[in-house]
Design the sequence.
């Protein structure tokens, strides 16, 4: 979904607005130029819409229940979608912050063991963010 928004240049005003609002820590951006409000909004909105679709299929089709890993009878689908999308974005932020403090530019990598560690974390950071935010669902 985010790629479509980028390719069609939707929400161009938000494409210029960084999530860190230009705030710096130790003279480095908090998250960098690739973490923008358009991406955050797109991911949260797309995840919420897809979660609401899953909820619809769960409640209206027998095959929807058999395919679902989530018991939508026990969760608020809207809250679930917002939390999952927010968790996805939030999971990326600590890694971006650390990379900026190491003066690694957005979208760039570094060499050696540190580079391999960042490559691994880049692949799993959003997953862990989603898992952490899923825990908040039990509070709703």
Sequence:
């Amino acid at each position: 979904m985010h790629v479509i928004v980028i390719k069609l240049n939707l929400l161009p005003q938000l494409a210029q607005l960084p999530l860190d609002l230009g705030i710096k820590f130790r003279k480095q951006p908090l998250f960098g130029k690739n973490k923008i409000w358009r991406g955050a909004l797109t991911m949260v909105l797309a995840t919420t819409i897809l979660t609401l679709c899953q909820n619809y299929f769960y409640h209206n089709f027998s095959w929807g229940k058999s395919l679902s890993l989530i018991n939508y009878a026990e969760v608020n689908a809207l809250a679930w979608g917002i939390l999952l999308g927010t968790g996805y974005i939030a999971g990326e932020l600590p890694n971006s912050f650390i990379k900026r403090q190491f003066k690694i530019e957005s979208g760039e990598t570094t060499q050696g063991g540190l580079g391999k560690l960042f490559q691994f974390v880049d692949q799993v950071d959003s997953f862990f963010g989603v898992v952490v935010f899923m825990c908040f669902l039990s509070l709703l």
Q: What stands out?
A: The chain has a mean pLDDT of 90. The first strand starts at residue 24 and ends at 25. The two ends are 27 Å apart (CA to CA).
